[in-house]
Specification:
Elements (H helix, E strand, L loop, with lengths): L7 H5 L5 E5 L6 E8 L2 E8 L11 H4 L7 H9 L2 H24 L7 E5 L2 E5 L19 H20 L2 E2 L8 E4 L2 E4 L6 E2 L6 H17 L10 H10 L15 H30 L11
Antiparallel strand pairs: 1-2, 2-3, 3-5, 4-5, 6-9, 7-8
Helix pairs in contact: 3-4, 5-6, 6-7
Bound molecules: adenosine-5'-triphosphate and magnesium ion.
Magnesium ion binds next to loops.
Length: 290
């Protein structure tokens, strides 16, 4: 195909040898299939800031640390240069996340670098070499749904242990290859420790997966993996190989509330009796007098 303008510099530098086709265009980026020597890879070209949508919201960026201090100072100043640096930081968030997650043994596309706003990464394929389908495009058996769900939960736990929450996890951002689910699309990844929305984002991600796999294995709809893993994470007991149960004592709160209500009711009754006695309108002759 004709080389898209944004990929020309990579072609000129010899980082890619040929642009083969374009995959479907997402909301945030265009993804191309490219040839690098003998290998076929994906090149994700991010759209300009103004064309992008929700993922750049402040909510996602809270707690992100800028390791480059010159850039951090520029960003703080909100000058045009600062905005450019901010944009650069945003764009490199996905490649940073991919390197971190690959190191944490999470199944994500292997990153091959980030050049001129283009992310080069492993293309996830089916056994025959064709580009892998998204989770949303496949029909699962009951067993597959349970196995894939377990794998995604395992990966979300490893991500959380590496300090990250996906933030936009859904059946559209998980591909399926011969070995199972592969998580993609991470520019909005959320800092688990420094972001006030972290717990809510984790819950949304995990519950999206529960709803999707629950279509094929309805018993998953009764699980509470998000709450279980967040509680373990907060108490410092979550580690990458931790086996979860999907069970979380939601009911204990209700039991506690019931108990509390009984105590309150008893106290109210006692107080009413006391008031009645003070008013002297207790006409029970057997009642003790004070
Ligand atoms: N490494 C990869 N291997 C194979 N296909 C990929 C890969 N990365 C992306 N794709 C394909 O390109 C599509 C768009 O990629 P991605 O989700 O990363 O971009 P996006 O523009 O942020 O999407 P969204 O519409 O979710 O905002 C994916 O749904 C998937 O089909
Ligand atoms: Mg996507």
């Amino acid at each position: 195909m004709k080389t898209p303008k944004r990929l020309q510099p990579l072609l000129d530098d010899g980082l890619i040898d040929e642009v083969l086709t374009q995959l479907m265009s997402g909301k945030e980026a265009q993804v191309y299939v490219v040839r690098c020597g003998e290998e076929v890879r994906c090149a994700k070209v991010f759209k300009e800031a103004k064309q992008r949508s929700f993922k750049q919201a402040v909510q996602y960026q809270e707690g992100r640390k800028e390791r480059n201090s010159r850039r951090a100072r520029a960003m703080a100043k909100k000058t045009r240069y600062g905005q450019k640096e901010q944009e650069q930081a945003w764009l490199s968030a996905e490649v940073d996340a991919l390197y971190r997650l690959a190191a944490a043994d999470v199944r994500v596309p292997k990153p091959y670098g980030f050049v001129d706003g283009v992310l080069l990464m492993e293309m996830i394929t089916e056994a025959d070499g064709h580009v892998a389908p998204r989770l949303d495009d496949v029909t699962l058996t009951h067993e597959q749904a349970l196995a894939y769900h377990a794998k995604v939960i395992e990966d979300v736990v490893k991500m959380l242990c590496a300090g990250l929450i996906h933030g936009d996890l859904s059946e559209f951002n998980v591909l399926v290859d011969a070995d199972g689910p592969v998580i993609i699309d991470l520019p909005q990844a959320v800092d688990a420790a420094g972001n006030n929305s972290a717990e809510a984002m984790l819950e949304r991600d995990v519950n999206n997966m529960r709803a999707y796999f629950g279509r094929f294995a309805p018993e998953l709809l009764d699980t509470h993996y998000a709450k279980e893993m967040w509680a373990l994470y907060e108490s410092g007991e979550l580690h990458p190989d931790r086996q979860l149960t999907g069970y979380f004592e939601l009911d204990s709160h209700i039991a506690d509330v019931d108990e509390l209500m009984e105590v309150i009711d008893d106290a109210k009754e006692e107080e009413a009796e006391r008031q009645a006695r003070i008013r002297g309108d207790d006409d029970d002759p057997d009642a003790p007098s004070y």
